[in-house]
Amino acid sequence: MKKIAYFCQMLALLMFAGGGLTARADTGTLLLQISGLGRLSITSSNGVVVEDAYTNTALDNYSNAVLQIGTTYKVAATPATNFVFGNWVLGTNGFGVGLVISTNPLFFVMETNLALQANFLPTTPPKLAITSPITNQICTNVSFTAQGTTTNRYPIVAVWYSLNGDDWTNAVTTNNWTNWSAGLTLTPDFNVLQAYAEDTNGNFSATNSVSFVYANGSSIKLITFDDLPTPGKSGVGTVTNGYSGLQWTNFGYLIGRGAGWQAGTVSGKVAFNNSGSPAVLASTNGAFDLSSAFLTAAYNDGLTVTILGFTNLTANYSSNYVYSNSFDLSSSAQTLVDFGCSNVTEVYFSASGGTPNVNYGGLSGTQFVMDNLLITTEPPAITNQPPSETLALSNSATLTAGVSGGTPMTFFWRKNGVILTNNADVSGVDTSTLSFAAITSTDAGYYTLFAKNAYGSAVSLPAVINVAQPITISSPPQSVTICAGEEVIFSVTASWTNSAALTYQWYAPTGAIAGATASSYTNLAAGPNDSGNYAVVVGANGLSSTFTNSATLTVNQPPFVAGLVSSTNQTLYAGQSTSFAVNISSALPATCQWLTNSVPVAGATNTILALTNISDANAANYSVIASNPCGNTTNFVVTLAVNDTPFIYQQPASQIVGAGANVTFTVGAYGGQPLFFQWYYNGAKIGSPTGNPTLALTDVQTNQAGNYSVNAFNGYTLNPAVSSNAVLTVAVPPQLTIQPSSGYLLLSLYATPGGNYVLQYSTNLSSATNWTPFYTNDNLPGSPAQFLIPIPPGPTNQFYQAIETF
Known about the structure:
By secondary structure, the protein is an all-beta fold.
């Protein structure tokens, strides 16, 4: 009873993380046993490794190591290769009896006399087999379903496959992966399928592979060399002419044993180039394709094999080849070489270079090993039968059949069983396309194509050629002119051998009209966008169609008023002038009528309406109606408003005059009539208001200089329009003074500022024309204006004068 209670207490102390009870002063004994192969390590709570060893026997306290009672320890299990961790059995009554725990690592608190057993389970890799395809199988469909099986001690979780080195893909399973399958899309010639399995313990099977062939519809020949006779005592045989229907030069064969001979064997026997010298493969029956083969270097790693292809049998292998390629080979692994050499009659093999494989006992040489050679010979095949047709009389035509096969290939056409020859009507009788220059009634009949090459022949199915009379158009569609919105109908009258079989397709300027497939086409309300050329294609039983001449549809519409040009809503002062204008676009003769407030303006039938000296009577909404035989168009309205308030649009101008001159000030003003004008001098009224916008002054003197202004007013407003000041300047005669100044003459001009003056000098007063200007000013800035003039050298007379020019 004491031992049972102690065991229950021990179970309560198991943990999956750090921590534990307060350590006791005494120690306990841990008995440890491993079932299977693995590694155990025990670490104390402070990270100190207590024990770390591989074992499969019971050890007392890990070689008498002391474990403190009440202290937390971690024990970790690491399985050996081909083993996985199973579980722990922890107890106090010996090994294998107690609590079963699957957590790894395990945390526990040490108690007196514990027994711990770690169980490691052996593993074995899964096994995978590819049951279909089999090695060297020839497939004739591009789609193929690969199949296989798996076996294993543990459950399989996946089967992975790869075709021709593509990405690994998960296969499809049935019966829990006991059977698997994968859909493949094959490539022409050799294909290589690889597959492996994975189980729940992360173990992988060996990768299996199988090579097979996709014939792609051609006559494919897989040469394995396995059907050659067993070599004699020498172990080497000669590949003789005629083997597999080909000519062989300097090719030997043997059963691959040792070195690259064995590595290069796919099955049974292999071929090689005798003595490492060049070898030749040829055909006297026509061209073939050298598709692929497994090549391996017999001795030298990095051996280079060069292959040249020719289209005729030759003894000169250094030029005139149509194919050339080189491949570097390994001596320890096969290389599946895709030659890509097509339509040749002779292939030349040579080998050179490389480094002897150190694992082959010092053997060396330029021999290469060849197995599973794949060549393709293509007899003719009709891939597209010539079509039966009904052809239109007098039209040109062709009759074509699709043919595949090896070249050279010969052709001939038969009509009603008789071989055709080229003539003025028929050509291409020796090609796959028969051409007719112009169909006649005698061309009707049954046509077949015969194709032949070195590997066979093919005959097409008969193509039946019927000859029909051309379609006759007795009444083509006619041009028509309408107004927008009216109905239009186009029609055609056509005849043929069987008029009920005629088809129609109408065309507008934008292309084919959907649904317009009758002998007539109706548009119930044609618009401007429907204008253009219309035609119809008339066909019969797939014959070349007859395209009618075009009929033109002209759709007129009411005039288009492009808008009031430079005319917008306006507010003008009474007395001003203005005009409104429109642009009218019309395909037909059009008229124009202006309206004010929707009432026609008498005589206003031009595109421009001019209004002068406007008054309140002209304030209105203005619009225009444009008309032609297809209707009227009313333009949008523009509004004219009249302002009767006085407005000065031309100010009186300032003037500078000489004393005694006559002066006139004029102001320009708009406003409701009548307008009155009150003139002012320096702010004081000049007489009474008048209807005259002009103020006239005669014989002005200096005392009349000053500011002149005017107020314009009428009876529509209490506020007059006030002009700006016009300044009148009455100029006084200019005066000049002269005095010397440090070698200069200081000339001072006293005159009216703002006046216009010219200074002149003369050395001879005998004539009034001897004066020369030396200074001109159109707006004298101030008075006096002073000038420094150099004193002339020597005794001389110099005279100066100022002339007022305004």
